[in-house]
Amino acid sequence: MSTVSHAHDHHDDHAHDHPHGWRRWLYATNHKDIGTLYLIFSFFSLIAGGIMAMGIRLELFQPGLQFIRPELFNQLTTMHGLVMVFGAIMPAFVGFANLMIPLQVGASDMAFARMNNFSFWIMPVAALLLLTSFLVPGGATAAGWTLYAPLSVQMGPGMDMAIFAIHLMGASSIMGSINIIVTILNMRAPGMTLMKMPMFCWTWLITAYLLIAVMPVLAGAITMVLTDRHFGTSFFSAAGGGDPVMYQHIFWFFGHPEVYIMILPAFGIVSEVIPTFARKRLFGYSSMVYATASIAILSFIVWAHHMFATGMPVTGQLFFMYATMLIAVPTGVKIFNWIATMWKGSMTFETPMLWSIGFIFVFTMGGFTGLILAIAPIDIILQDTYYVVAHFHYVLVAGSLFALFAGFYYWAPKWTGHMVNEFRGKIHFWGSMIFFNITFFPMHFLGLAGMPRRYADYPVQFADFNAIASVGSLGFGLMQIYFLLFVVLPTYRGGQKAADKPWDGANGLEWTIPSPAPFHTFETPPTVK
């Protein structure tokens, strides 16, 4: 403890040395400021992507074409996916990494503070490129968030803007990952071995390696689309000797690990929250680390399960089918360990714990539908139906987003110095949970009945479930506005003062520093016993 209070005294001497006003944010090199910027950016992206989703659900509320012509509908589905994946979920996790990793490993800051600033400020430029692509002739890209060739080769200039935006976001991800890896490997406090590290740091270390491995693959795929569009190459054009299916192979070699990039940090957050509120140590810590690494390795050999309908040989189908099912094993280990951590614990159900249990419940449902889609003959029937839409929203909304909420409610006292209002947090949890299931559960039935995705119109037999889903989506969207106005802003402005260790079951270096975390922390590294 003494080392920590010593660091705090230093903070008071140095009060003059951090910039104020707009300079503090524009030139931010402090990991807490940059983490905050990432979280603000990702929330704006969440709202933007959510407005697009509202447009989609508004059109699908009834059969027939009401509000949105099919071209704009496809632009909305495409941009909703791109904005949510690259603008909301990924930057939010990077924000958590920036805020928490130095505090958890006892480092004074991230390894490369200026690169950290640069990797953030690329993001708003990319977002601007993406969102203004609606205004160019022909509108935004409408090739689906996967940007499949040959459709993406034929789109208007909005497609080029999307390609450049994704390049920028990829560069940001790679720089952020390098920073995270070097910070974790080189800047841990004395005595903190890798196997003593918090699970959140472990999941992010593995995620960062995944990002560095796959982001250049995506860059390659979209660069080939760009040269096909403008420079006379024919990578994906059969007429010129290319192969449109090759695009899918390259894209999904990025795209499948990407799915785990968006879920592994979520596993890390839940692995921090559950032991705290069960008041027990995480069950099977080392098996959790190995399971995380296994998921990351296996994610590279399952990409073609997205492509069962492309006519691959049966041997290939069998390989990708069994490899996909294999991923259920380390995932099952994690879920077992979380439940074993709660087993016979002294559990209390504060908001972070509710979100974590909700996460396990809905993520497991998404995992089961994933196993069903892994079976090639079933997948060929369900491919590109609403069953797939239901599956990946159960994994990504209920997986990534619910874990992010758990992390916010858990660590916000450390960031702001104020406790989050429990009652409002519970309203946000139950409202989101109920409306989420009203929105996405009926989509399983729509998909089983054969309703294809990315269509602005549909036959009348799908009307009832679509109406239910649209109403649910509006409720879910309003709950997130409620979260911003009645949970986030009041917590930053004031409220009950938070203790240095607001949760009595919490362990870890981040709870040894004052709340709110001072501008400079761990100037003298703490010693981990």
Fold and architecture overview:
Keywords: Cell membrane, Copper, Electron transport, Heme, Iron, Membrane, Metal-binding, Respiratory chain, Translocase, Transmembrane, Transmembrane helix, Transport. Pathway: Energy metabolism; oxidative phosphorylation. It is a multi-pass membrane protein. Belongs to the heme-copper respiratory oxidase family. It comes from Polynucleobacter cosmopolitanus. It is a single chain. By secondary structure, the chain is an all-alpha fold. The protein has a domain at 20-257: Cytochrome c oxidase-like, subunit I domain (Cytochrome C Oxidase, Chain A), CATH 1.20.210. The chain contains 17 helices and no strands. The protein has helices at 2-13, 21-26, 31-59, 70-105, 113-132, 151-154, 157-186, 199-230, 244-261, 264-278, 285-298, 314-342, 351-374, 376-382, 386-416, 422-448, 463-493. Helix 7 runs antiparallel to helix 8 (199-230) and helix 16 packs antiparallel against helix 17 (463-493). The longest helix has 36 residues, at 70-105.
Describe this structure in a few short sentences.
This protein is mainly alpha-helical. The protein has a domain of 238 residues: Cytochrome C Oxidase, Chain A.
Strand content: under 5%
Which structural category fits the helices and strands?
A: mainly alpha
E-strand count: 0
Low-confidence stretches: 1-15
The largest sheet, given as strand count, sense and whether it forms a barrel, is:
none
Q: Radius of gyration, Cα only, in angstroms?
A: 23 Å
The residue fraction in helices comes out at 55-70%
* Second-tier CATH architecture of the domain at 20-257: Up-down Bundle
Mean pLDDT reading: 95
Global geometry:
globular
Q: Give the ordered list of helices and strands.
A: HHHHHHHHHHHHHHHHH
Oligomerization category of the chains in this entry: single chain
Q: What is the C-level CATH assignment of the domain at 20-257?
A: Mainly Alpha
The CATH topology assignment of the domain at 20-257 is: Cytochrome C Oxidase, Chain A
Assign the CATH superfamily of the domain at 20-257.
Answer: Cytochrome c oxidase-like, subunit I domain
Count of helix runs: 17
Distance between the termini: 11 Å
